[in-house]
Specification:
Elements (H helix, E strand, L loop, with lengths): L1 H26 L9 E7 L2 E5 L14 E4 L2 E8 L6 E3 L6 E4 L3 E5 L5 E4 L5 E2 L5 E2 L5 E2 L9 E6 L4 E6 L6 E5 L2 E3 L7 E4 L2 E3 L8 E3 L8 E4 L1 E3 L5 H33 L4
Antiparallel strand pairs: 1-4, 2-3, 5-20, 6-19, 7-8, 7-11, 7-15, 9-10, 12-13, 13-14, 15-18, 16-17
Length: 261
Amino acid sequence: MMRALATAATGLEAQQLAVDVIANNLANVSTIGFKKSFAEFQDLMYQTLKAPGTSTGIGLLPVGIQVGLGVKPVAVHRQFQQGSFQQTQNSLDLAVEGDGFFQVTLPNGSLAFTRAGSFKIDNTGAVVSAEGYLLTPNIIVPDETTTINVSPEGRVFSVVTGTPEPQELGQILLARFINPAGLNSLGKNLFQPTLASGESIPGEPGLAGFGTVLQGALETSNVNIAEELVNMIVAQRAYEINSKAIQTSDEMLSTVNNLKR
């Protein structure tokens, strides 16, 4: 009976993790550039009472007796499928259509990567993220700029009062990774590379392997509410079943304890 109690307890922990991940997805359903995650599990080791292929004296056992000892989480996998686009008409709202991340510089000088393209202009004219991190490579917008245009290839132009010809301010570069699921999530819509993701591969938008830049739009979260609610129901039912297994095991232990009365 004690084996069933311990096994069912691992099921409770696993489904709790699944619900935690689903709750985070739902909490970020309106977060710009957010990428949903899902929990992956694997079975634990097995207690072998009879190994398959054991000799019986007259032949071999075609199947054995192996009792599983539960489940454990193996990964929380982030999915980087494209989210839908929300038109804003803001000239510094940018979305990546396809593969790639915007690059920003953190206060410690390291690079971070994001799909959230809601950029602003700070008091020096530099283009920064909503948290104030510099877009990299840096782009400085001149005073008295009336219009900012960003081409799909990431080239940034401005029109200044009194100057009819647009002035090129710089080039937005994107970065991509061999394994984006291996990126380390920092919060604030930011990621940093790890040994699992590989180093960033910078490049101009529109080149082979890189997406293009869409001005005046933001990429919304790729969370599908209906799908998450279905996953939550499945996790809830699985949690109830495992708790029922604990209850049943407890009742069986109680029956055994009462045999001498």
